[in-house]
Design brief:
Elements: H1 8-37, H2 53-56, H3 64-84, H4 92-102, H5 107-119, H6 124-137, H7 142-153, H8 161-173, H9 181-192, H10 195-208, H11 212-231
Helix pairs in contact: 1-3, 3-4, 4-5, 4-6, 5-6, 5-7, 6-7, 7-8, 8-9, 9-10, 10-11
Length: 250
């Protein structure tokens, strides 16, 4: 998925993909362990552990975080069971909606749930809805803003680079936003064709980064953009990006 271009910028994207894959592999390992060790409900009882989150919360008697821990184990068990068997995730959105209602600040649950829904549940709309719920509950989270940008950046069926850039930019402005948010924003703006905004974003990278390699990279992209604007040839600076393919193996 990540080695589609050798350019230095794409190596940075590859690193981000590697991190995502490592986290995904860890979650899958945990899901496999849960599937093997936790008692499994019968098929028709599968949802008995997941009543509506908003209705379940008052029933936890102030122990919603503890119940959320169990819901997390059940959620990854559900994911692991269907990941290993039929690859049908019919109730995945419901499972993570319950979990995040019980624990609204559980950032990892929004991220894992959304990417699972988008890539394996084949429902980008539900993935987007889960992330937007996360933003509503955690409006100051730079981590969620960056992950939402990345969700649009790798959207199955076609990247949404402008939306990705907006969320990367939001992440760059927030205190806990990842340090790579500014250059992801610049890269997404550039290859969506927003060259003037991309130029400004690369300027920020060039002026604020302590890394000489990143400064040089930003300068090279700024040179390309200047040439593109001067010549009227956006193709000098804009590349059509393909969509990374996710291959699911049982």
């Amino acid at each position: 998925m990540s080695g589609f271009l050798p350019h230095p910028v794409h190596r940075r994207v590859a690193i981000a993909w590697t991190v995502a894959l490592v986290l995904g592999a860890a979650a899958f390992t945990l899901a496999r362990h849960a599937y093997a060790t936790l008692p499994r409900p019968k098929p028709l009882q599968e949802l008995s552990y997941y009543p509506s989150g908003e209705h379940l919360r008052p029933m936890t008697l102030g122990h919603s975080e503890s119940v959320a821990d169990l819901a997390w184990m059940r959620a990854i068990q559900y994911y692991g069971e269907h990941r290993r068997t039929d690859l049908k995730f019919v109730y995945l959105a419901h499972v993570f909606d319950v979990l995040t209602s019980l624990s609204p600040r559980f950032i990892q649950a929004y991220v894992f749930g959304a990417f699972s829904l988008a890539q394996e549940g084949y429902s980008f709309e539900k993935a987007e809805a889960l992330m937007l719920k996360g933003f509503e509950r955690n409006p100051g989270s730079g981590v969620l803003a960056f992950e939402m940008g990345f969700l649009y950046y790798v959207r199955p069926g076609g990247r949404e680079l402008r939306k990705a850039a907006e969320y990367f930019e939001a992440a760059a402005r927030l205190p806990d936003g990842p340090p790579q948010a500014s250059r992801f924003a610049a890269y997404a703006r550039q290859h969506s064709g927003d060259l003037r905004i991309a130029y400004e974003m690369w300027q920020v990278v060039a002026q604020t980064s302590a890394n000489r390699y990143l400064k040089d990279m930003a300068q090279r992209e700024m040179d390309k953009i200047r040439e593109a604007l001067a010549s009227g040839r956006p193709d000098v600076a804009v590349r059509r990006l393909g969509t990374p393919q996710v291959i699911i193996r049982r």
